[in-house]
Write a structure and sequence with these properties.
By secondary structure, the chain is of the alpha/beta class. The protein contains 10 helices and 15 strands. It has a 6-stranded antiparallel β-sheet with strand order 10-15-12-13-14-11. The longest helix is centred in the last third of the chain and has 18 residues.
Amino acid sequence: MNKRRVIALGFFDGVHIGHGALLKKTYERARELDAVPSAMSFDTHPDTLVFGTPAELLNTMDERKHLMQSLYGIEDVIFCHFDRDMMNMPWEAFVEDYLVKELHACHLVCGHDYRFGARGIGDAQKLAEKCRALGLGCDVIGEVKLDGITVSSTHLRTLLKAGEMETAVRFLGHGHILSGLVQHGDSRGHTLGLPTANLAFPKGVLVPAFGVYAAEAEMEGQRWPASVNIGVHPTVGALPAPLLEANLIGFAGDLYGKELAVWLQAHLRGEMRFESAAALRARVLYDRQLVADYYQK
C-alpha cells in the first residue's frame, strides 16, 4: 500500500531559510497525520523551458536533496521531469492527477508566491481552494524576510557573486554547499607542498566570487576546516574554467575519486596574482592560518 505524503511544493534552489519555513511545516504536518514528509521539485528549472534561457542554479539536484533530508527531515524528495507535457498541464490536473493520484498527497504546503500549471495560472489561492474541494489540507507559507529583505534564490545569487558569503550563509541558514568527485588537477598544490582536493563546477551551477574562503570539507560524515580557493590560477597560467581547490586542515590521505562536499562560510579575500611560486606558497600558508583562526573564534 502506498503511504500518504505531505508534500512541500517548490524548486528549492539553495534550500534557504524561506524554503526552510515550508519544509518545517511539512515535517510537522507529516508527524500529525502519520504521513511521509516529502518535497516535490523539478529536474530542470522551469525558466529554462518557459523562457528559453538556462537558469544559473545555486545547487545540483543531489545537493538540494541532501539539504532537505539532512537539515529538515524530509524523507522523500521527488524530482519530476519538467518537459513540455508538464509545462502545458492544466493546473487542476497537476493537483488531482499528479500530486494526489500519483504521489498520494494528503496535505500540501507551498509558498505565497507559488505558481504552477499551464501558463502559470495556478497559484497558492487556487491550490488552497482545490485542496478544500478534494478534502485535503493545505498550508500557504507567507513571505520570509531577513534584515527587511525578502529571502529568495535570486537575492542569494547576487550575494554569492559579490563575495558576500557570510551574509549569504545567514540567508541560507547553512554554509553554501558545493560537492562532487575529487579530480586530478595540475598538481600545483603538491608542487608547493600543500596538496589540494579539486572540484569542477557542474554545468549550470553558479560560480561564487573568485578568491579564498573559510570552509568546511565533508567526506563520509566527517568534517575538516578547509582553506578554499575558487578561481583560474592567474599566477601559474589561467585555467580554461574556474576550479574549486580545497586545502583540508588536519587531514592526511588520498581524496582522488572520492565524494567531497565543501561548505563555504566566509570570503576572506579576492583572487590574487603573485610574482613567484614562493610568494604564492607563503600566502597559501597565511590563508590556512586565517581559516584556522576563523574556526577558533
